[in-house]
Amino acid sequence: MNPYCYRMIWLPMVAAVTLCFLSAANVSALSVSGGSFTSSIDPSRDAGPNSGLTYERENYRNLWLGETISGDRADADILTSENTFNFFTDVQENEAFQIGNFTYTNGLGVIDGTTPSIFRNVVQIQPEGEQISRFTSFFTIENGENGSADTFIIPDSPVNENTILEIDGDEYVLQYLGFGTSSDDIDQIFTTGLAGTTINFNAYGQLINYDEYLASQTVPTPSAAAAGFLLLSALLLRRKKHSDATV
Q: Signal peptide position in this chain (predicted)?
């Protein structure tokens, strides 16, 4: 094979491997302590699916969801943000930490189809020595029919780009990871108990480098780039063979 062809195949692979090693070497020195809490939850007023549905709200932290058979809100689905300040210590970049804690009661007498489904969630984070930063996200609640379990769902890796947290000269944004009862048990889909049960659970997130996040949205990964280069190399090699065959 022509040495030129070898270079066309192997150079992109070497470049991709080099990029991988550089990324691995570029480990953030982020280590931050502070506190976080969910300051408010409420059905999103901008969400069409919530239109005409039933809920009551107090202090942006207590929600009674759905119309009940008895007419008593105590029989509704009840979602409460405990508004507890969750302290965290030496959190690293891309490390999960608690950003909120909730109590949810799956109501006994909720009429199917009357509960809101899309909710706005505001999280406040205050690193030591810094001002409070507010991050907004959205999640959905799918109400189970006939007394079955309800389901909390958070979108795929949501990132709020409107609030940037600056720490030691670097910029970070909060990425919401999901719900769970501990940092070892986080899921984007969280299922409650059956009607009549109450459950306590937490929300979790992680701080990611803002520049790296932006780059990931616009630049293909090294593996994708390598695959593209290999495909291009194969096409060029095929064209070279075809050219040689027709001479």
A: 1-29
144 and 22 together in one domain: no
Per-residue confidence (pLDDT) for residue 203, from 0 to 100: 95
Helices (H), the chain: 3-25, 210-218, 222-246
Residue 37: both structure tokens together: 């809490």
Residues written for the chain:
247
Distance from C-alpha of 200 to C-alpha of 81, rounded to nearest angstrom = 10
Confidence of residue 226 (pLDDT cuts 50, 70, 90): low
145 plus 240 within the same structural domain: no
Q: Are residues 160 and 71 in the same domain?
A: yes
On whether the pTM is more than 0.70, the answer is: yes
Same domain, 171 and 226: no
Q: What is the DSSP letter of 168?
A: T
- Expressed as residue numbers, the domain containing 139 is 32-216
How many domains are contained in the chain? 2
CB 61 within 8 A of CB 80: yes
Closest to 121 (Cα-Cα) out of 34, 14, 43: 43
Q: Indicate the residue type of 143.
A: N
**Tokens representing 144?**
């189970």
89-100 pLDDT per residue, tens: 999 999 999 999
